Amino acid sequence: MDTQTTPLLDIESVDVDGAIRETADAASGTTRAQFLKRFAVGAGGAVAASSLLAPAASMAATREIGSSPTNDIKILNYALTLEYLEAAFYAEAVRKGALNSTNAYFAKVVAGHEAAHVKAVAATIRQLGGTPVKSPKFNFKGTTGSNNSFTATALALEETGVAAYLGQVAYIHSTAVTQAAGRIATVEARHAAWIRSILGKLPAPGVLDGVRTIPSTLKIVKGTGFIVG
What we know:
Elements: H1 11-14, H2 19-28, H3 32-39, H4 55-65, H5 69-96, H6 101-127, H7 147-168, H8 175-198
Helix pairs in contact: 2-5, 5-6, 5-7, 6-8, 7-8
């Protein structure tokens, strides 16, 4: 049985221009120092993918931060930044056409899903009276042109995406936004199970999924940040 924890990049490596951290900090009301203290970043800056917030700690954070319609827009912009990242990753993989048939089919289907997620989240932000953040620029450093690097990165992306959505559930004010986020999160979980199956890993490795306020996005790629400005 595969019980390995997926290694993730630390936020400094991926979020080189601070786009993810800035939107996440705005949504959670924490400073970067408070975040690092609260969520105990481990050696090398990576957070263990299997870590879970204790229920009491989660409730305390909710009481401290609260929720509001304005905060919903900030949370959605945070989610939109992550959706931009995933959509760009899969779109580039499809454009390159370097993957084997199994991975190419996965990339094509998921690229369509992620593009739809981008539109849905942006539309929801506008409906709430907010302005969607613009997409950052990305450089995936060749990970979309190799089967091994593509599958490893896709796995980390999807599992991190699920945890990112789960990490914001307690802070959402609107029931409609909670439902919309949940419907996306479950699709991200299906993506994760699909890519795990392709890799020969157990589709559901544990009884509980991890929760992240700021995702440590993706599998370790030496010294590389995907968001470049």
